[in-house]
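S.,

Sequence below, as promised.
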Amino acid sequence: MKFLQIMRPLHWTKNMFVFAALVFGQKLDVPLALGRAIGGFFCFCLAASAVYIINDIIDRKRDRLHPEKCNRPIAAGKVTIGSAVVISALCSAVAIIGSFLLSQTFAIIILTYITLMILYSLLLRRIMILDCVVISIGFCLRAVAGAVVVEVFISPWLIICTFALCLFLAFGKRRSEIAQLQEVSESFRNTLAGYTPELLAHMLDVTSGLAVVCFLLYAMDDRTLRIFGTNNLVYTTPLVLYCIFRFSALIQTGKYSDPVQLIFNDLPFQIGFVLWVISCIIIIYADKLGISFGNISAY
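The prediction came back faster than expected:
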């Protein structure tokens, strides 16, 4: 159990971005594409776990200062560094080999992700703002990898939207850390010395606004109309706004130290997100589902 815990399986939800291209590329009903996407998802899960373990090894002393992370197996001394290194190496090897079997390009993306995240753990996270940018690039790599593995074109608007949304999540995490750790926040993460609640609130406003605008531009894009035969995705915007506003309101209170905690524990957010996903699937696959919205845009 302790060895599974250091792999952080709850954080595998972050790799759901791999499935974005499957849904928006209209291949959700194609068994081969679905199988390849699931394979890509698990490859990214193992790659992410390898990085998490390396990060926990590096951070073991600092994690002991955190009210929650002090319970992580490596920080608590329940898993030896040697055992952790072996598990990390195995996860990396399986992820790289598995991704290579799916696609050489996908394997390159996995290697790029692992390299970038190791650099983040060793150096880049110490640089204010760049730390959050690198995290967002990691999520963009997930989205691009999903498009590569199912062999579909992914709109630049979706990439930009993913980047902005994940930058919003990253700044939100920094804001929650300051709210939760307060005066000892600098001891846990050096970059928190440069962030202030006011600055992060501004960054949250800018990035959330950018994410929504990019989604709207994607929904109204001519190519989206040609592929889906409709621009009705724009009508899911209220659900997008609700989820973003709900996340922003809760994360700034310090109640949740990580976006993953919020996603798994806040029922209103879960309902809003699930409704958005279902709405998108219904709109994108309306023809295959035998659903007609009529000329809704005329109204």
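The mean pLDDT is 86.

Coffee later?
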